[in-house]
Amino acid sequence: MGSFSIWHWLIVLVIVMLVFGTKKLRNIGQDLGGAVKGFKDGMKAADEPKEQISQGTGAADKTVDVQAKDLNK
Q1: Is residue 59 domain-resident?
Q2: How many domains does the structure of the chain reveal?
Q3: What would the DSSP string read from start to end of 3-68?
Q4: What range does the domain containing 34 cover?
Q5: Contacts of 54 by beta carbon, 8 Å cutoff, 6+ apart
Q6: Is residue 39 in a domain?
Q7: Is 73 helix (H, G, I), strand (E, B) or coil?
Q8: Is there a contact between 33 and 40 (Cβ–Cβ < 8 Å)?
Q9: pTM here?
Q10: Is residue 65 assigned to a domain?
């Protein structure tokens, strides 16, 4: 009852492929890979200093005052 042998894992894999199909499993793998890649990109962006992130146009440092207009006219 300890660990499973390679034959046990192969049988489980065949059953999973029969139940879900290879196309569905491929889509699940692609979705999972995209999620992991997005997470890694988000972690890299969080590690960058804020000075590097706001170097774009400098508009992030300015406050914009806007008056609301009445749309019922």
Answers
A1: no
A2: 1
A3: S--HHHHHHHHHHHHHHH-HHHHHHHHHHHHHHHHHHHHHHHHHHS-HHHHTTSSSGGGS----PP
A4: 22-48
A5: 60, 61
A6: yes
A7: coil
A8: no
A9: 0.44
A10: no
